[in-house]
Amino acid sequence: MAKVLMVKGSNHYLSSAAILSPTTHFRTNPISISCSRIRFRPTTYNSVQFRAFSSQDSTSSPKDEVAARIGFLGLGIMGSPMALNLIQAGCDVTVWNRTKSKCDPLISLGAKYKSSPEEVASSCDVTFAMLADPESAVDVACGKQGAANGLSSGKGYVDVSTVDGPTSKLISTHIKSTGALFLEAPVSGSKKPAEDGQLIFLTAGDKSLYETAAPLLDIMGKSRFYLGDVGNGAAMKLVVNMIMGSMMASFSEGLLLSEKVGLDPSVLVEVISQGAISAPMYSMKGPSMVKSLYPTAFPLKHQQKDLRLALGLAESVSQPTPIAAATNELYKVAKSRGLSDDDFSAVIEALKVKLDQRS
């Protein structure tokens, strides 16, 4: 039997298999990465692309170094802090958002602005996209003034939106038809991890673009996984969010049941935090849920969208998911109560409605 070496990091225990895996990269402690030290130069690997290396690399020559120009499309709850972290690391960042006013805070900090995804992609070496749903992701990448129109051989497009596999493959086909490289890289994490540069990237697609973008992913995240072919990153993200949505629904039931039988739900949160089922989500969301407060970190409408996409994924392989299906219905009830833009923890309100109807 193979021995498993457990190494303690900052709040993490990693097996030797995880540490040695070439496709899994963890950052357990905060690091400082300066974009001014990231350079890209063309090289040949089936097509022209970039290789990341330090400006101190003794093998590089000034004539073939090009300062990394980073594009960022979509500046919502997640995209804005992700782009901000790149700017604060010294990156040359160009931004676009449908509502231009959302770009203004970043422009004031040094970001450049272009009026369309096409113009951003044309002016940048690597372009990131963080859009709300599959329809938006396709439109921004492939639409009339989409990023694909500004891409060419030697450029890269990294889609960090949460979409389904078929959508990701469709975008990939359009991007790669231009000669550019494509990487899907949906993130696990919400507003606070995005602000703190503690996201988890679930990547798939062109391995060389993954290696090129790695220093940038490390600015925005704490770990990154390379999962192979396009579609695998999307699938992993949907499975993760399916589990998360179901956990939140069950947690909501527990909080309400404890209160109904005369217990203090705040104490329940404390008990859970010290037991085997402890999860950061419960400790983070529980106290505000007890007070019926739902400050938005991950909008409920996006959680329901991810559940819907996860159910479609399960259907495609004939995998029963009865718990997720029931959970999805609960989030739909919450949406019908006008809670779409609240945090996904507001799903507890849908259960309150049902309880009130029975009393």
Automatic annotation (TrEMBL):
Catalyzes the NADPH-dependent reduction of glyoxylate to glycolate as well as succinic semialdehyde (SSA) to gamma-hydroxybutyrate in vitro. May function in redox homeostasis and play a role in oxidative stress tolerance by detoxifying glyoxylate and SSA generated in glycolate metabolism and GABA metabolism, respectively. Keywords: NAD, NADP, Oxidoreductase, Stress response. It holds the Pfam family NAD_binding_2. One of its GO terms (molecular function) is NAD binding. It comes from the Eukaryota. GO terms for cellular component: chloroplast. It comes from Buddleja alternifolia. This is Glyoxylate/succinic semialdehyde reductase 2, chloroplastic. InterPro entries: 3-OH-isobutyrate_DH-rel_CS (IPR002204), 6-PGluconate_DH-like_C_sf (IPR008927), 6PGD_dom2 (IPR013328), 6PGDH_NADP-bd (IPR006115), HIBADH-like_NADP-bd (IPR029154), HIBADH-related_NP60_sf (IPR051265), NAD(P)-bd_dom_sf (IPR036291).
